[in-house]
Amino acid sequence: MCDDGAGPTVVSVNVGLPRTVEVDGTVVTTAIWKAPVAGRVAVGRCNLAGDRQADPTVHGGVDKAVYAYAAEDLAWWADELGRDVPPGAFGENLTTAGIDLRSVAVGEVWAIGSAVLAVTQPRVPCYKLAVRFGDRSLPRRFAAAGRPGAYVRVLQEGELAAGDRLHVLSSPDQAVTVGLVATAYHSHDAQLAGAVLRAPGLPASWYDWARARVG
Fold first, then answer.
1. For residue 143, which of 159, 157, 156, 130 has the smallest C-alpha distance?
2. How far apart are the first and last CA of the chain?
3. Is pLDDT at 57 greater than 80 in this prediction?
């Protein structure tokens, strides 16, 4: 994917810390509540300054250091759900505009502010989305919508802020999009899983999953 004339931008930078909430009598710890912050935000190897993940075994880490979701997708969800869906509502750290995150390639490299990021994988929804929206159907609907957003790893630490341009520095020759990886996973399609194996830069667990599905 190449940068167009107008250029994609960061609409907001969103961070949040773990909190406990009660769901059907069970206490759940989650950091899915993110809110926009002003000013320049430091980008570390595993997260943004002021941001944490509640369960580092499945969230965060170098391969899920920062999560991006598109303002266009938030608008789609607002229509779909009939409610306000503000920046950060899906737990994203970067709300973007002007770039179709379904079509970005795994391994694509972005420069935002002084940080350099590489796209690693789509989001696979978990029950925390249901907690955030108070809707048990949200994980299933999120998977079916085909709007997974994109996780990135940090190649170069730096700072970024709302209003920064998102520059696409490079994209793999054999592009496998975030949307294709997500569709392969949710559809259990062996042919699409074979295509996932061609994606450069996926975490090892994705290749293990794809080989098992193909084989």
1. 130
2. 31
3. no
**For 63-96, what is each residue's pLDDT tens digit?**
999 999 999 999 999 999 999 999 999 999 999 9
- Where helices occur in the chain by DSSP H, the ranges are 71-81, 128-133, 138-145, 178-187, 190-196, 204-214
Sequence-ordered strand ranges (E) for the chain: 9-15, 19-23, 26-30, 35-37, 41-43, 66-70, 94-97, 109-112, 115-122, 150-156, 158-160, 166-170
144 HSE (CA, 13 A, CB side): 7
Q: Is the pLDDT of residue 2 over 80?
A: no
Domain residue ranges of the chain, discontinuous segments joined by +: 9-173
User: Residue 134 contacts by C-beta under 8 Å, 6 or more apart in sequence?
Assistant: none
CATH class of 9-173: mainly beta
pLDDT for 5 equals 52
Report d(CA 75, CA 81) in Å as an integer: 10
Judged by DSSP in three states, 198 sits in coil
Q: Can you tell me whether residue 168 is helix, strand or coil? A: strand
Q: Is 25 exposed, middle or buried (0-12, 13-18, 19+ CB in 10 A)?
A: exposed
Q: Token pair for residue 199?
A: 């994606």
Residues 6 or more apart whose Cβ sits within 8 Å of residue 9: 96, 97, 98, 163, 164, 165, 166
